[in-house]
Amino acid sequence: MTAMTREACVALDASDPLAAHRDEFVLPDGVIYLDGNSLGALPVRTAEHLQRVVTQEWGQGLIRSWNDAGWFEAPRTLGDRVGRLVGAGPGQVVVCDSTSVNMFKALTAALSLRPGRTAVVGDRDNFPTDLYIMQGASGSTHEHRLIAADGPTLADVLDEDVAAVVLTHVDYRTGRMYDMAAVTAQVHAAGALMIWDLCHSVGALPVDLDGCGADFAVGCTYKYVNGGPGSPAFIYVASEHQDAATQPLSGWHGHADPFAFTPDYEPAPGISRFLVGTPHLLSCAGLEASLEIWDRVDLGAVRTKSLALTDLFISLVEARVGEHVSVVTPREHAVRGSQVSLRHEDGYAPMQALIERGVIGDFRAPDLMRFGFTPLYVGYADVWDAVDVLAEVLTTEVWREPRYATRNAVT
Amino acid sequence: MTAMTREACVALDASDPLAAHRDEFVLPDGVIYLDGNSLGALPVRTAEHLQRVVTQEWGQGLIRSWNDAGWFEAPRTLGDRVGRLVGAGPGQVVVCDSTSVNMFKALTAALSLRPGRTAVVGDRDNFPTDLYIMQGASGSTHEHRLIAADGPTLADVLDEDVAAVVLTHVDYRTGRMYDMAAVTAQVHAAGALMIWDLCHSVGALPVDLDGCGADFAVGCTYKYVNGGPGSPAFIYVASEHQDAATQPLSGWHGHADPFAFTPDYEPAPGISRFLVGTPHLLSCAGLEASLEIWDRVDLGAVRTKSLALTDLFISLVEARVGEHVSVVTPREHAVRGSQVSLRHEDGYAPMQALIERGVIGDFRAPDLMRFGFTPLYVGYADVWDAVDVLAEVLTTEVWREPRYATRNAVT
């Protein structure tokens, strides 16, 4: 890899089986977009699709579109399509609400299935909202045990008191990935239920929820899935749990017969009881447009290219700016997601300097520069060019100019 | 009113101070739309606004739009604009999630402020999701006392055990409206907190939450506000309660410093602690477009026209089809919302026959034909013409044709 040239990268792009997808996305001129792990790029087809939903389904169909345009079923029909991306058979995923709200449902539902158990396990490095929702949903009723990279381990904290384990599958900071099958089996061996946060997994790599026997999962669709800013999240509940689990967000769209308008809540059978309120249809429409692409994508090819892109980035970074940054993302493929994070004494300012030069990644406190690699629209030459700019920013130390230190609300 | 003619209706439209707004909405040819109380019509400007958000803010701005396009602040900036419609001063409303999810937050927050009290009060005729969320949020911890039109009354059930009262301000079936100021004062006199569901009020008539001393309110923006199918809901929390109230949907957007990514939840000061996950930006954009209209609308004029339209509809219905239907909506202005509901032995089939003839209302089980009057885009001649069609459907009994009995998923 260290002998790589830009010409070789161009050749790799030319023979890339996913290369044709790049034209399905809008990418601004002069931008190399390595932040699709935070907000995915706009599919070309989305603008037209949204116009049709707005002008035809809403404008002309009006209230009739709840039946005629499939709005009422959208959480389930979109859910099944997202399900294919995470290894979930039909009827186990609905698209709705935010990841945080869905985590609340998943955790309270898991606790309803393990009424005698008094503890919940998380990872100190979970995406924070997973920890925050644990605190809100079970902080006053359950003991919280946190594992961490430097200990304690899962084996240390699992016992017959643990009701559920909440883990972020791919670490949003480091890109480290859990072994879903092994961890789920370990959790089940202790009699607990497993809840996966797939925000940094879905659309980035193959996931096999059914095959791993996962109990619950949640995730967003605005990162690798390209559903648009704040597109609705999803929740997976394994079939075996659906009719036994209850959760307190008992809104009318989760009712067995929502349009009977009866005064007493009766949860719908199956996955529908994890719906709450009226679906956000315009945001659903953004997701619907992007799923039309995903319906045609082989996730195995995505994973192959993702690993090649991140391998390339790591090797170029180490060869060219190894004295300025350290790679915190694991080299081992089996435990790597689709991002690479670099530790730098002051990651914020260099990232601002990169963004000004058209290489968009992001920063995560206290010292990580984060680069996401989205195989549908990022190519090998992009990686080469991004490292070129990174080398310029780091070796010239231009990032020390004061203007790069100005903080934004969202970093 | 009974001497009204179609010509007189046309004249009223010509002198209507709100008439100019009609051209700001897309209305399908041949349709008289009397279901804006279920899904508001499409503003003309919305399609273009959404295109700009999609192609410019998302497509070109990408992740940078969280700062540069105001996405991060959208729940608060849109909240303040919705706040003007419901009499809420700045900093007391955020736009987010669904009405059901927001009711869950409001109720759990109210209970956090009244820890010693063991009962919650609702109305049997509340919109069902309000009752369902009461059951999910407090069904296992609090006694539930339901008032009803035929008793018991609020006075019967209020005592020092009641923590909170949840009422739908305008009844979705009958259009009956509570006296917000009087009821809120009555609830406060018992030491309880008042939570209003404003789904059928916001954009239909002036509401004065601050003036009435309301504690919490929730509502949707896809009915009279015209934000689009499933546009985000809102939650109002009176300033005095914000820093003391807690709610268990403790997601990262409600954190005091969401991008610090600390492991422990610390609720933001003020209204922001009622946010949970990433805002649904495309759905927010639909609302943003419609609020540009509302920013220019006098709600007093809306109320005046709403009462005139519903008065006219009631008088024409009674004069022409009084033997076929009974008006269940109150005649008294002070207790009437912006809809009229007619009871009919088989309301479903006649409504399907009306819809087939271009007069779109809806049906609510078991026997109500519901007609919403949205002063921004419904005129007096529309009312006349709608009653013409209603008279044809009811007097010819064409609705008895079997095809009108076929039920849809959403009725």
Radius of gyration of chain A, CA atoms, in whole angstroms: 22 Å
Structural class of chain A: alpha/beta
Question: What is the helix tally of chain A?
Answer: 14
Strand content of chain A: 5-15%
- By CATH, the superfamily of the largest domain in chain A comes out as Type I PLP-dependent aspartate aminotransferase-like (Major domain)
**Major pleated sheet of chain A:** 7 strands, mixed
Distance between the terminal alpha carbons of chain A, to the nearest Å? 32 Å
Q: Which CATH class of the largest domain in chain A is shown? A: Alpha Beta
For the largest interface, the chains and their residue counts are: A-B, 89 and 89 residues
**Low-pLDDT segments, ≥5 res of chain A:** none
Number of strands of chain A: 15
Q: Could you state the oligomeric state of the chains shown?
A: homodimer
Number of domains of chain A: 2
Helix-strand string of chain A: HEEEHHHEHEHEHEHEHEEHHHEEHEEEH
Walkthrough of the structure:
- The structure is a homodimer of 411-residue chains.
- Chain A has 411 residues and is α/β, with parallel strands linked by helices.
- In chain A, 37% of the residues lie in helices and 14% in strands.
- In chain A, helix 2 packs across helix 11, helix 5 crosses helix 6 and helix 12 packs parallel to helix 14.
- The longest helix of chain A is centred in the last third of the chain and has 23 residues.
- Chains A and B meet through helix 2, helix 3, helix 5, helix 6 and helix 11 of A and helix 2, helix 3, helix 5, helix 6 and helix 11 of B.
